[in-house]
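Exam revision sheet. Question 4 asks you to relate a sequence to its structure. Input first:
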Amino acid sequence: MAWQTLLGLSVLGAFVTMIGSLIALFLKEFVAATWLERWKARQTLLGAYRRYQMPIFLAAEELSNRLYGLSRDNNDREQLAVGLTVVKKPIVREPSATVNDHYLRYRFVSNVYRLCSFLGWVEMYRRDIGSLNVDALDRNRKLDACLRNIQSVLADGWINQHKDWRDWSDCLVFREEQRAIGHAMSAPGNDLCILDFGSFTSALENDPDGTKAARWFVQAAQFYECLKRDQDFRLVRMRMLVVYLTDLMELLQPKRIDRSHIATAKAYRLSFDTITGGPKWSQTPLPGGALSIHG
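Answer key, C-alpha cells:
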C-alpha cells in the first residue's frame, strides 16, 4: 500500500509540475508578449505626439492668425477679386510698401501655403502612428478628436444649414483630399520637413491650373479663391477653424497660446448657431473644454 501511495503522490506531483510549467509558459509567451506589444505601441504613440507637438502647434497658430484676419467682421476684404489669376500673370516687384499686385499675390499664396503646411504636418503625424489605436493614450485620443473637428469643418457640406445654401459661395476639401495635400507637402528625403515657401510658390506658379505637380495645392487654393463679403460660407468655415485650431493649440501647448486666441474662439463658438444658419450639431464634450462634432 505504501508504494501505491508513493506512486499516487508522484503522479500528482508530476501533474502539478506540468500545470505549473504550462502556466509559466502561458505567462511568458502570451501575457508578457501582449504587455510588451502594448508597451511598444504606447511608446510609439507618445514618441509621435512629442515629435509633432511643436510643429503642429506652430502651423496651427500661423493658420489660425491668417483665418482670423480674413474672417473677422471688421475686415475690409480686398475690393479686387483675388485668386489664382494673380499667380498666372507675371508680376514685377515694385519698390513700394503699398498694396500692389506683388503684395496681393504674396498674400494669396501665403494663405494657401499656411493651410497646406498644417495639413502636411498632420499627415506626417498620421503616417508615424500608422494603424495604432490612438485611444491607448489619452493625449493622442484628444489630439485625434481635435484633428477630426478640423477635418470635418473643411470637408462637410451639411454644416451650412441656411435654407438658401445653394446661393452661398463655398468650397469643400474632402478628407482624402486633405491627406493628398498633406502628402504633397512632404519634402523629399527628410522625415521631419515640409516643402518650404519658395519651393511651394514655384510649384504653384509653374502649374496654376493644377494639371501637373501642383494639383492638390490648387485644390487648397479654391478655399481662398475670390472671397466675397456676403453669402460666402468659406468665411464661416474659417471662423469655425479658428475655434478648433484654438482647441488644438490649447491641448498641445497650453502655456504658449495667446490668450486672445481663447477669447476669440469663445466668442466664435457662441455664434455657431447664427453663422451656420441652423441648430447646433451633435457635440461631445472633451476634457479641457474642447468639443467633438459629428456629422
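Marking note for examiners. Residues 282-295 have pLDDT under 50 and may be disordered.
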